[in-house]
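I would love for you to help me understand the pair of lines that follows before we discuss the fold together.
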Amino acid sequence: MDGDGLPPFDPGGLDLADPYPVYRRYRERDPVHAVRASDGAAGSAGGESPAPTTWYLFRYAEVARVLTERAYRRRSPVTGRAAPVPEGYETLRRVVENWLVFLDPPDHARLRARVAPPLGAAAVAGLRPAVRAIAEELAAPLAERHAVDLVREFAAPFPLLVIARVLGVRGRLWPWFRERALALQEAGGTRGDRAPEGLARADRAAGELERYFTAELTARQAAGGRPRDLMGALAEAAREDPALTVTVLASTCVHLLTAGHETTTGLLGKAVLALLARPGTAAELRAEPGLLAAAVDEFLRFDPPVQMVTRRAWRETELGGRRVRRGDRLVAVLGSAHRDPARFPDPDVLDVRRATGRHCAFGLGIHYCAGAALARLEAETGLAVLLDRLPLLRPEACPRVEVEYAPDWVFHGPSRLVLRSGEARAA
């Protein structure tokens, strides 16, 4: 116990479905909370020796500082690494270390300049009809069903099919991609039980995805011509900038496909759970569909699909009156920052008319999510279609809800979300 009577914070001990009461306790009593390696809960990152201190940040002010200031970066100033991949899994490490989210300037700026335009607001606006059509196609067979696994049958395939279209993936390969994306998660996030067999599966999945995208990018480079999809734009970038190798760009495609869809899957699942608990809010959104765009940001604030992100201190600094040393690990607890009453009045209330302002669900600063516009469109469209077409989301259906969460605080959300009607229960 520390001086405030709080035990060292351990994400592994949280209630996956509702961590917010614990967050509140730490935010109020020890908002910049130190867990030293000797406490046994800090863990290690990427096989290196544990940092002298891991700091968990529970207030909005400190989280925003760490996400925006250059004193805090993704890579360790000691090892130069950012991705938490142990030794012995070199394919996995190579792929993940080249993800945009783990790069610092100037590499980050060079790659983001190529990725951001095809995912920007103007480009995404043109995708609205296609995104709606994908959502309608997935939702149609669910309308007459008395039992639906919303994750498996909608929330996972929907954003995967969308990002596959943006990338230029041919054919309906989403089950293959989904299987490998889930395997990659066994190596990352905040899982403290990364078994060798899980890491081996992640390493194999990384290799399979890398080979697929390398072949696709190489074919586009050879074909030349005007880019018609995001992979074509990346292939053109490789011709123009030798620093953007096919290895780097293949890793970027893996990142966009896996991390890009998993966050939207979590967002959709959590938003549906919130609406099932608040049928009045669901009715309000059906009556005023124009509220959905703002409602997506409130769902992101209220229960974000990414609960924690990590940075490293590159120089000695002070946060919340605590001295942070160079090399210390900082975990920004986004879920807690979004419930900070100093930033968001009545933070435990879901209010779809709230002006959320500067929430952290897409990050802040240079690592603000390049795919934020696409994620917002996916969530707005997916929720609109589900509210309109899925009877199980209406109070008269009396659904029984079965929920399972994956043990992960980075990609956080239901891994299984089954809705059963009264008829299914009777049968």
